[in-house]
Amino acid sequence: MTIAELHRQPLSALPKDVFSLPAESFVDAWARALDLTEIDLTADDRLSLANAIRGGTNRLRVVDALKARRPVPSSLSGLSGMQALRREPDQFAMVENFVRFAKEDDAAFLRYAFARICGRDPTSAERLGLEFDLRRRVLTRTAVVKRIVAIARRDGQTAYWDTLLPEDDGNGREVADSSNASVTPSGLLVNPDGQAMLVFVREVENVGWMIAPDLLCQPLQLHDGNWSVHSGWLLTGPKRSFAEGDWLLDLELIQPQTARLDIEIVANSGLDFLQTMTLVGSFSGTVCVTIKREHRFVELRVRIHERAPEDRWLRPRNISMRHVS
Does pLDDT of 264 surpass 60? Predict the structure, then answer.
């Protein structure tokens, strides 16, 4: 908690000089303001918190500890522990949380879903198209939420969807959908083999490109299903420290036969080059990169060479690194 957050506390029930009170009085005052009973906060607990203040603990940390003692509201006391936990809907989209919003107002539903998942309002074309399909019942709200997750990923954001209900095709058979929460799209993760892995860019069928959130990149503009690119840096990042050892850089890129691009792995703000190569035409393969203890702020750089107008496209199917030893 910070000073700026104190306005959220029940200050009307607190003395104006609460932070000047002796340790025991400070704890008692906040316990009364938070409606803590002797069961919620025993005498031993009060003494322990008062002693912590005397020992130099920041009083705001003590307030946080007292807030954590508050009981579950009575309106939730009949619910299971799982149901009593709440989080605001965001790009980790639980479908049921979105489809119930503004049931009679599709426009409000779309604005809400785009704001939470994509962090922006829908474009006029997106709003009109999805609202039209909802009105004609061509799409359900569940399908729209999944489509908005796919749009967020094409925008280069990390986004998932998941549902509490089983998915089937109407005949009792499960439907596989690669855009749900079982697919980790990009960023730092652990793969099924237990290896630390960093996914920079990945193409997922029926979803689009997933780009790690801590990368800088050229705008993702699509033309004929490919990424329209121009000369200069295409991707840079993430400028973070990696575990020392051998890492494998996996590359699968499709581009015109004569098109060229540079792949660089650098450290220490570009002072140390760990791997550098120039690719001509399409490429699929793996390159070993050794990262030592002194290599900090490791960064991938992809640079596009000047190209003819008809060759200014790229289809990166996979750019990732995995720790092998």
Answer: yes
Extents of the domains making up the chain: 18-68, 92-162, 215-323
pLDDT in tens, 214-255: 788 888 888 888 889 999 999 998 888 888 899 999 999 999
pTM higher than the cut 0.90: no
| Cα 142 to Cα 30, 101, 110, distances in angstroms | 45, 12, 12
For residue 253, what are the β-bridge partners? 283, 316
* pLDDT tens readout for residues 20-50: 899 999 999 988 888 888 887 888 888 889 9
CATH of 215-323, one of 3.40.570.10, 1.20.140.10, 3.90.79.10, 2.60.120.200: 2.60.120.200
Q: How far apart are CA 105 and CA 166, in angstroms?
A: 26
What CA–CA distance (Å, rounded) separates 6 from 18? 12
Structure tokens at 194: 């237990």
